[in-house]
Amino acid sequence: MSTLSSENLILLNNVCKDFDTPKGKITVLQHINLTVNKGEKVCIVGPSGCGKTTILNMIAGFLQPSSGEVSINGKKVVKPGPDRTVVFQKDSVFPWLTVRKNLEYGPKVRGLPRSEWESKIDFYLEKVKLTEFADRYPKELSGGMRKRVDIARAYINSPEILLMDEPFGPLDVMTKEVMQKDLLDLTREENKSIIFITHDIEEAVFLGDRVIVMTARPAKIHSDIKIPFPKDRDPSLKMEPEFQRLRKQIDGIFKGVEQE
């Protein structure tokens, strides 16, 4: 069972989740015990419909467990909070606002004084390589650029935790690789904690400090695999024998889980 320590940031303690449907109750998650430490990146993989996004939504505070408890910094999660930001698969930029105005939106809504965030806008525009596109509208950007706006907008609100639901899924392979590297660099510099949902085993091994493999529904945690690589990673790592060994190991577990 997961236990709380001074390093634990997120704790799921014996979490179960049921949903009522016209055909009766469906149990999606069973007895999930998971801890995520401060600054840790945890990738979750598993069969479609097994409840990966449900876990993320409970940590976000959008859903409550049917039993068990989700806590952050020792406090029960009962609603969304400024310490958490969600980045979805589909970009959620506001099409009627420029890139800069998209980044300004969160701090303004939160009522923060301009002096607290104005300089951060240019900082994050530079970090996500969008400085020269600051006054463009989303329709003028590529899919990868819009996803960078999403991530920069998440960062501008200074969350402790990033919750990412297949954010790079729709992107082409080359753009995805660039985005993966950019995400690692940003989170390493600012020591963010990440829960990252993906179907891509290679992506999970490249991004994660740990990879969690879920069973089919009603889902439990099948495996919790520690990834031994340093936090500063380059895409060339994907060609290394140890990387390929881990990818094949997790892929084998994943395929076995899907067939159960």
Automatic annotation (TrEMBL):
UniProt cross-references to InterPro entries, sorted A to Z: AAA+_ATPase, ABC_transporter-like_ATP-bd, ABC_transporter-like_CS, ABC_transporter_ATP-bind, P-loop_NTPase
Keywords of this entry: ATP-binding, Nucleotide-binding, Translocase, Transport
One MF annotation (Gene Ontology) recorded for this entry: ATP hydrolysis activity
Gene3D superfamilies assigned to the protein according to its UniProt record, in alphabetical order: P-loop containing nucleotide triphosphate hydrolases
Keyword Transcription (UniProt): no
ABC transporter domain span: 10-241
Name of the protein this chain belongs to: NitT/TauT family transport system ATP-binding protein/taurine transport system ATP-binding protein
Origin species: Pseudogracilibacillus auburnensis
